[in-house]
Amino acid sequence: MLGWVIACHDEHAQDMLDKLEAKFGPLAQCRAVNYWRGLSTNMLSRMMCDALHETDTGDGVIFLTDKSGAAPYRSAALLSHKHENCEVISGINYALLEAMYPLRESLSSAEFRNTLVNMHVPGVSSLWHQQQKNPPFVLLHDLYKH
To answer: The PTS EIIA type-4 domain covers which part of the protein (predicted)?
Structure first.
């Protein structure tokens, strides 16, 4: 089963997790990380790293963030590059999480990411999809190495 780390500003992550648990019961491999004003990015990174390790049982982890490019998204992006089967989604809301909850057990992390983004909900994207639009910078010198 895919682990979920819901990371949002203020109390929104915990609120979404509480609503999901009210509907589905206790959620295994799911953590909320609330990013409060004044919280250092170092502390946020530590909280995100802890949540990643608490939710990953080998099938992968989905970071579900509220705003693309904001601190929780950036922290998740940095962690995702160090771990296999990690995906970063931005623009999430409760209705989307409720709809996607049943798919945690049956999809791979990449399939989950694609299914979520292909729902075409305004503002929802993934780090992977953003990287396809903006490929990494490559030095011309590196292109011509033999």
So the answer is: 1-124
pLDDT-above-90 percentage for the chain:
81
Instruction: Assess whether pLDDT exceeds 70 at residue 77.
Output: yes
Has this prediction a pTM greater than 0.90?
no
Residue in 9, 53, 83, 146 annotated catalytic: 9
User: CA 107, CA 39: separation in Å to the nearest integer?
Assistant: 34
**CB-based burial label for 37 (10 Å; 0-12, 13-18, 19+):** exposed
**First and final C-alpha spacing in the chain:** 43
CA distance 104 to 98: 11
Please name which of 92, 89, 109, 94 lies closest in space to residue 29, comparing C-alpha atoms.
Answer: 109
Residue 9 bears catalytic tag: yes
- All residues at 6 or more sequence positions from 38 whose CB lies less than 8 Å from its CB, including other chains: none
Q: Tokens 């999430």 belong to which residue?
A: 92
Q: Which two tokens stand for residue 79?
A: 């962690």
Report the C-alpha gap between 24 and 39 in whole angstroms: 31
Element (H, E) at 61: strand 61-65
